[in-house]
């Protein structure tokens, strides 16, 4: 039996500038389902943070609230208008959905160009689209249609679209959940590479302990019904990380600690699974 | 397409040839049988004309019949275009404003469920004949376009809608860059139905107008030939009407294929 103990040391990464902060955020839906309750979360500039929790813990809802796609019923979302590079566009958000969410009638290039088109930024669009496609390794597929791509390539196109604007906050909602393990590992590596080279802030929602440990600097473990932060753990392993980290004893140790925290979070409030 | 191959174990080329040859062979067989029955039984042409007589009537009456065909096709095409523009236009309007949808949708349904044969005589009283015929073609054909387009506009992937919201898309951008492209397969499906229906609408109106006089379309020729017991010409006109319907369906299928072939599942030929 695991000893559940909420006094797990909180991460040491609370330094630097927060980009966005959730303060006492609650969300209930019309059918009386309370998705989130008093959720407090700071997202620090430049960090890679994962929201980890069982399905139905409201982690996707939290992400949608950050994105502005959903309004909190209580509490508020504070955007920190920082100085410097982010001052002008603190809210430039890229969002990667669980599904690739590409327009099937448009080519990959047209899909990636969409955010620029909607913003009326046509001037240097082709160059930026090319650059974004090159970053995710899809240069040769600009004129392909989404249905001609594999699942992993569609997800790459979706990431390219999220990166084509000058995004400083990248929100990802279980983007690799539907992919096979090999593709998933490769995309994990590529995502880390992009994060290291581009310096974006990433909020990554997942229900996979292994994925969250591999990717994140900080893991926020959430409870279910109502969804709130149970604890957070920092993963201090240095970047860049690669296959050696995935097979190291450190990695296994982190995974065990995070798994225990997740087990406690899942057991904590509501024993009987009531579906999602 | 694939099922037949799996069942009968024939090569793709042979399959394609058979798909064309078999219906033609069946047609030839049917026509030959018909000719034989008429000749052997000595059936008079005013009861059942032989295929050969129908064909020679088609040739001898070609001036009259082709003029009538042109009239009917023009009406059909105009009715179809009005139905396409009206159906898609109304669907977009309904999609943009719930109030307009609530106000008008029931009447669109009423227009659709009331049999056109019953409406046509009334229209002929209140409208000039050509306008009445056109109105009939339109009334019959616009509803499938409206219904299908409405369905298509409401079937957009919710995540894509969220994505457009996230990037601050205007209503106009959502309509033209998201909803209408997503509705394409549905619109084209509606148009395919509307093509055949606008021909039916035109024919019904011409028949209703027939007794009123000035009509000269193919359907009017059929009614007129019936009164004169010119049965071969009735058959010839019917044949032309049927060919016109096939032509319309084929043209719309080609259009649909051209617009969807790169991306929509319905137009993709899968390799097994």
Notes on the structure:
The complex is a heterodimer of chains A (276) and B (272). Chain A has 276 residues and is of the alpha/beta class. Chain A folds into two domains: 1-92 and 167-276, Rossmann fold, CATH 3.40.50.300; 101-165, no CATH class. Chain A has helices spanning 59-67, 108-118, 125-135, 151-164, 181-198, 209-215, 243-246, 249-268, and strands spanning 18-28, 34-44, 48-52, 74-79, 93-96, 169-173, 201-206, 218-222, 229-234. Chain A has a six-stranded mixed sheet with strand order 5-6-7-3-8-9, sandwiched between helices. By secondary structure, chain B is mostly helical. Residues 1-5 of chain B have low confidence and may be disordered. In chain B, helix 4 packs antiparallel against helix 5 (98-113) and helix 9 runs antiparallel to helix 11 (231-260). The longest helix of chain B is centred in the C-terminal third of the chain and has 40 residues, at 171-210. Chain B has helices at residues 2-8, 12-41, 51-60, 62-96, 98-113, 116-126, 129-153, 158-166, 171-210, 218-227, 231-260. Chain B has two domains: 1-43; 51-267, MetI-like fold. Chains A and B meet through helix 2 of A and helix 8 and helix 9 of B.
Please name the CATH architecture of the largest domain in chain A. 3-Layer(aba) Sandwich
The CATH topology of the largest domain in chain B comes to: MetI-like fold
- Regarding CATH, which class of the largest domain in chain B? Mainly Alpha
Number of helices of chain A: 8
**Please, what is the oligomeric state?**
heterodimer
Q: What's the gyration radius of chain B in Å?
A: 23 Å
Shape of chain A: globular
Number of strands of chain B: 0
Average pLDDT of chain A, rounded to a whole number, is 83
The residue ranges of chain A in which pLDDT falls below 50 over 5 or more consecutive positions are: 7-13, 83-90, 270-276
Estimate the strand proportion of chain B: under 5%
The chain-level mean pLDDT of chain B equals: 88
